Every structure is written in C-alpha cells, then in structure tokens.
Amino acid sequence: MSRQFLVNKTEGKVMGVCAGIANYMGWDVSLVRIAFVAAAVFGVGSPIILYLLIGLIAPSTY
C-alpha cells in the first residue's frame, strides 16, 4: 500500500499544508505548525514560499 501526500483542508488553518504533512508523517499537527513558524521566524530556507507552492500544487482532501 503506497501513501499519498494530500493537503488536508478540513483540519487545516490556512491552506492545510501543515495538517497534510502531519497526517502523512503520522505526527501531531501542532508540532508541525510550531516547526513551520520557527523555521519562518529563524529564516531556515524559504518556508513561506514552500508552503504556498505545496498548498497550490498538492492534491487536497475536503
């Protein structure tokens, strides 16, 4: 059985990317959101641009 990454718009706050990552990896969504905010604040890569790209490109659940 293969897993597929899906943006989770039903459990998401903005675009559902963090909720989708949490569902895919089996992690708590709060930890994923905290990690995203920390990465955005400390400037690790381009998390906001990546978030927007994933939100627009990835298939979603409703």
From TrEMBL:
Q: What is this protein called?
A: PspC domain-containing protein
The organism is Sandarakinorhabdus cyanobacteriorum
Q: Which Pfam families match?
A: PspC
Q: Which GO terms describe its cellular component?
A: plasma membrane
The regions listed as transmembrane in this protein's record are 34-58
Does the entry feature the keyword Transmembrane helix, yes or no?
yes
| InterPro entries associated with the record | Phageshock_PspC_N, PspC
Where does this one sit in the cell? Cell membrane
Broad class of the protein's primary localization: membrane
The Phage shock protein PspC N-terminal domain extends over 9-60
* Keywords of this entry: Cell membrane, Membrane, Transmembrane, Transmembrane helix
The way this protein sits in the membrane is described as:
Single-pass membrane protein
Q: Source organism lineage?
A: Bacteria, Pseudomonadati, Pseudomonadota, Alphaproteobacteria, Sphingomonadales
